[in-house]
């Protein structure tokens, strides 16, 4: 389809954009007299140059921007994942990786110049206060939240606040009218576990979208729930998971590995090695494990997959992962900005580094994703290039390779029609969600009264609904070619509707119907 090529760079950027979130925080600022910050001629040269520009240059210059450019140029010459984070971005990134924020617990977007609630976070402040999907938030305390000048940033400022602080909302609901509701702000989770449910009578499924501070706790809760259902085998879905903190990935792997088994190790430039071993805490050390990965699975995802593969613990299914084997640590720069600096490399239990080469510059490094497409690697496992010099063997005798990502044990090719890429783009852009919201809003009372089971069994997406989305897309300037893929489009529309009504678990259940990798796992389990 011609459409997919147009938007291909967006998809290629997914793993790159999230791949830098790996490592723990380190703050050296408490002791400025340490050798790390000792004065030297190189630092003095830069400081003096900035002072000359500040005080002597003929024009007024924003030296802050010069410093930012300088920092970025320095980091670009190190490796692709050592990055500068300006102050205006740091708070959002930190919040995302902490796994929660302080707010009222709704997802929303401006619809016809009004704040429209898409859904409430389960167990969050708004749900507890009685706010429902479809409600319009008109005012927060004495601030008006509607009109043409509505800004998303301003909205966030009004709805967020200190924990346990209260905000008086004026809300409009169809069939009820305008009413006031008092909401006490609380911790709102940014979930990293999208879904957890039973694929069959004895096989469970858990999807993890990133590795944040709360990921292991979320994962363990869902694993315990599945164990209560007598799960015997488990699918851990790490597709499109660009990584995050190391610690949650290690703790997750620990659940599946026997005591004292090596999970991974790191090595810094001085050759110092730090080993990470499994402990006695494993709660699923005997059941069968399948790990799903693809070309966007990176860093912490690869640590988990590598630990399972190198210890002959489970089966890796999918396509070669991204290939990020560098560990970053966040360091404050004193002005609200920070740098994530590569401090070591990590290695899988067999001793392989899965970091792909970056010696030819960042451009070629990030374009390596395109090279995989051109080489046919997304279609055939035989097209994956490996080096005999980077061959390793697991304790069970299985051959594995280093030098660029985790190569799966069982290969599943990418959809050559690229329909999935098109539909995923429409999801990420918000266009599909907006259309579905407007359609739900026409029968809001009916849909809000449905249970998830009733929705699954009774609601069908007909041709008129699907064609309506095509017309909607054209109306907002997006030309898509999905006339020959009505079934896939209907599935995504129903899944988006389920997400807005019931959350991400309901979405994944529908999206995973007829999923190629999951079908492969189910067939493998039948033959075991």
From TrEMBL:
Residues 100-175 form the PDZ domain. It comes from the Bacteria. Keywords: Hydrolase, Protease, Serine protease. Residues 176-357 form the Tail specific protease domain. Pfam families: PDZ_2 (PF13180), Peptidase_S41 (PF03572). One of its GO terms (molecular function) is serine-type peptidase activity. One of its GO terms (cellular component) is outer membrane-bounded periplasmic space. This is Carboxyl-terminal processing protease.
